[in-house]
Design a protein that fits this description.
Elements (H helix, E strand, L loop, with lengths): L2 H22 L4 H7 L4 H8 L7 H11 L3 H4 L3 H6 L2
Helix pairs in contact: 2-3
Length: about 80
């Protein structure tokens, strides 16, 4: 698997974990957007993989869910097992 394919898989896993955690925490896309200081439409594009989160965005997200990026890319179960 190439570096790019691995990066894409990590991104896909991160986004899937993010969406699941957001729902588990009962947060709307609008609420997440507010926490990240962006518009709801920008957040929606990023959560759906049409645009990329910045490093700063990812740092805020991992703090919100108390789950580091390297754990989020391993999947939602790994994040929940840390709780």
């Amino acid at each position: 698997m190439s570096q790019n394919e691995n990066g894409d898989k990590n991104t896909d896993n991160f986004l899937a974990s993010l969406k699941s955690l957001r729902k588990i925490y009962n947060l709307s896309q609008k609420e997440m957007a507010e926490k990240l200081y962006m518009s709801e439409s920008s957040y929606c594009r990023k959560e759906n993989g049409k645009s990329q989160f910045t490093q700063s965005d990812i740092e805020i997200i991992t703090k919100i869910f108390e789950c580091p990026y390297h754990i989020m890319v391993k999947g939602i179960k790994n994040c929940l097992n840390r709780q």
